[in-house]
Every structure is written in structure tokens, then in C-alpha cells.
Write a structure and sequence with these properties.
The complex is a heterodimer of chains A (213) and B (185). By secondary structure, chain A is mostly helical. Chain A has one domain. In chain A, helix 7 packs parallel to helix 9. Chain A is elongated. In chain B, 68% of the residues lie in helices and 0% in strands. Chain B is globular. The chains are: A mainly alpha (213), B mainly alpha (185).
């Protein structure tokens, strides 16, 4: 087939295309994955019993909002990476800043608390299951985001996969926070950040394999 | 930005709104720019240039929904052309021998070459390998120029099945075209 024939072929018939497809499809992926994450939370874990009371504690909101900030930054990054020739710019800072803040908070808490409280505040009651549970909550949004990305055009697939992981990990951690009883900064700084880092790394590895086009 | 950017962008945007004639003119001009851009960079493989031009055109058509009008068209076109070129060079495993650095300026519209050599890999032949539900809509709508409704009547498919067939068929065509590099390299 000659190139002129290809041009003729491609321009025949309906050629109109939707605008803002990247944001819309990725938004739909989050909307599709989020109810599943809640379903896993409610059926397998359950809400923390004192959820209403916990809402009056600042640390509860730190625990919910720092992953949500990472998720928001991940969303901005992934919808930029899904479109050829668009720079990610400040979105990486948006994802890193909440992590740095929670680490800062943890360091301050660590050095201001009595020595015998330090290890309990780091390990809590649930360090064994925390990162894994966050990964499980992240899974629906992660899978849906990768499916959406396959219909878009990421030219840096490893970064796009990592950003999808940050989005999903952030959402997963925020959902898990509604079950989890831990409220200390050192615990969040280690186990929540690990739980979010897992999908980021998995995304970076899977991206080049799954997102070719 | 350059005149070419402004002219191409306006044609492309009209195409995205459904203006077929503008879209065709956009693709014609784009293919000339791609030919010059890729020809300069694939200096050692003049035979591959036309194939890569076609692969880029197909990719840009299939991914046209990822362009957002707040973005320079040059950057979008350059990123796709570069992605497809790296893909080819990776298949040839000679990235280090490339005489021209890949991350150079975005001068994708700087040159224009209308003289097309023959493509080596035949898209028409690949079209024959698609399943009927994709091949027939492409043949009737995209090559013979029938409307979606006429094609639906002719093939007994629903109109949405015709549209889906075109969409998936062109994507499958792009994937098979890309794979033919890697097997041949």
C-alpha cells in the first residue's frame, strides 16, 4: 500500500475523535475500581468501630489525606504520561511531598517520645498485614488504570506504570485507613509508605510489558 | 510557533471535529514532514523510512484521541515519531550506532519531503489477515468510502459493530505492522 493510499484510507469515513479522552478514561478507571476497593474493605476487613469518633482526631485525617494527596498527584502524572509529548512537570513533587512530610512528622515524633514508646509506635499492632492490605485495596484501581492506559499512548511505559501505581496505592491506603487502628506517624511513615511503594514498583516493572502500543 | 505548526494544528483540530477533507490534508502534509524528519535520522536505512512513515501515520490516527488542544502539535507528533523510531532501532539493536542523537530538538515540521519511495511492508497484505468483522468495515468504509450505515446494511452487522470493527481493526493492523519489523530485523 502506498502512503497516499494509507492517507486516503485513514481519512475516509468518520474521523471525529473525543477530546480529553485521557482524563476521562482514567477518571472512569478510578470510579470503576474504587467501589471494589470499598467492597474488599467492608467484606474482608470492616470499618474501624470508632470511625465517627476518630474523625475528630487530627492524626486520622493525616492518615487519610496524605495517601489521597499521593493519589491525586499520581492521577495528574498518569494522565500526562498517557499523552505523547506532555511533560509530567510538578506532579512528581506532588507525590513526593506528602511522603517527605510524613517522614518529617515521624522523625519529630520519634525523638520527642519516651524511648520505650518508640518501637511500639513504629510496629503498632498490625505492621504484618498493613502493606499487604494496602496493596490489596489498591489492586482494583491499579488494574483498571492499566486497562485505561492500554487504550491511550504512554511513550514512557515504566513511568506511566509507576504513576498508575502511585494513584492506586494512594487510593488503596486511604481506603485501608478507614479500617486500620494505627495512628502514629512512625507507623504511617514506614508501613503506609511501603504499602504505596509496592504498586509503584510493580507498575514500573509491568509498564514496559503491558503498555506497548 | 512555526507556520507549519499553526497550519497543521488547525487542520488536525478540524479533522478531530469530523472534517474529513481537513483531516486528509493534515495527514498528507504530516506524511511529508515525517518523511523528511525520519529520512534525516534513519540515514543508514533509507529503505525503512517509508515503512516507518506509514507506521507513524497509523499510530497517530489510532491515538488521535490523546491529543489535547492545549498542547503544541509538534510535541505530540515528535513524541510519537520518536517512540516508533526507537522501537524500530531497538528491534534492529543498533541504537548505539545512531549517528544522530535521539533527544534533539523538536524540529519535526522543519522539513517536508513529498517524494515517497515504496514501502517494503505491505499494509494491504496485512489487512487481508484481519478477521472479517474488522476487515469488511475497513474495506467498505475506509477504502471504498461507503458510509457506516451502508456498510452495516451490506454486511448485516450493526452500525456500532462496524465502528468498533474499524477501530479495533486499525489497532490490530498497527500492531501487526509493528511486529513485522521485529520479526524482520
Amino acid at each position: 500500500m502506498k502512503t497516499d493510499d494509507l492517507v486516503a484510507m485513514l481519512s475516509n469515513g468518520p474521523v471525529a475523535a473525543p477530546r480529553r479522552a485521557a482524563s476521562r478514561r482514567l477518571g472512569l478507571a478510578v470510579l470503576a475500581g474504587l467501589p471494589l476497593s470499598f467492597l474488599i474493605l467492608l467484606t474482608e476487613y470492616g470499618l474501624r468501630r470508632d470511625l465517627v469518633q476518630a474523625m475528630f482526631w487530627p492524626m486520622f485525617w493525616v492518615k487519610v489525606l496524605f495517601p489521597l494527596c499521593i493519589a491525586a498527584a499520581g492521577f495528574v502524572a498518569v494522565q500526562r504520561l498517557a499523552r505523547p509529548g506532555v511533560a509530567v512537570r510538578h506532579a512528581w513533587v506532588g507525590a513526593a511531598l506528602p511522603v517527605l512530610l510524613i517522614w518529617g512528622l515521624a522523625v519529630v515524633a520519634w525523638f520527642t517520645m519516651p524511648a520505650e514508646d518508640r518501637m511500639p509506635s513504629l510496629m503498632g499492632q498490625s505492621w504484618r498485614i498493613c502493606a499487604l492490605s494496602i496493596g490489596l485495596m489498591a489492586l482494583p484501581v491499579f488494574a483498571a488504570t492499566l486497562v485505561a492506559l492500554r487504550g491511550l499512548a504512554p511513550t514512557q511505559p515504566a513511568l506511566a506504570g509507576a504513576a498508575a501505581g502511585a494513584l492506586a496505592g494512594g487510593v488503596g491506603a486511604a481506603v485501608y485507613a478507614l479500617h486500620c487502628m494505627e495512628l502514629t506517624a512512625p507507623f504511617l511513615a514506614v508501613w503506609y509508605v511501603s504499602g504505596i511503594a509496592v504498586p509503584v514498583l510493580v507498575g514500573a516493572v509491568l509498564g514496559p510489558r503491558l503498555l506497548r502500543w | 510557533m512555526s507556520d507549519a505548526e499553526a497550519a497543521l494544528r488547525s487542520l488536525f483540530l478540524r479533522g478531530l471535529d469530523g472534517d474529513t477533507a481537513a483531516y486528509r490534508e493534515f495527514l498528507q502534509k504530516l506524511s511529508a514532514h515525517l518523511r523528511a524528519f525520519l529520512g534525516k535520522r534513519l540515514f543508514g536505512w533509507p529503505d525503512e523510512v517509508e515503512d516507518l512513515v506509514q507506521e507513524c501515520l497509523l499510530a497517530m490516527h489510532n491515538q488521535r484521541h490523546t491529543y489535547q488542544s492545549d498542547q503544541p502539535l509538534t510535541a505530540w507528533v515528535h513524541a510519537i515519531a520518536r517512540y516508533k523510531m526507537i522501537d524500530l532501532l531497538r528491534a534492529k539493536s543498533v541504537r548505539e550506532d545512531l549517528h544522530d542523537p535521539l533527544d534533539d530538538d523538536l524540529a519535526v515540521f522543519a522539513g517536508s519531503a513529498t517524494e515517497a519511495s515504496d514501502a517494503k511492508r505491505d499494509l494491504g497484505g496485512l489487512l487481508e489477515t484481519l478477521p472479517e468483522r474488522q476487515r469488511l468495515p475497513i474495506v467498505h468504509v475506509k477504502i471504498e468510502g461507503l458510509s457506516v450505515a451502508e456498510t452495516a446494511r451490506l454486511t448485516g452487522m450493526s452500525e456500532s459493530a462496524v465502528k468498533v470493527g474499524i477501530h479495533r481493526g486499525l489497532k490490530a493492523l498497527a500492531a501487526r505492522f509493528g511486529n513485522s519489523w521485529r520479526s524482520a530485523a
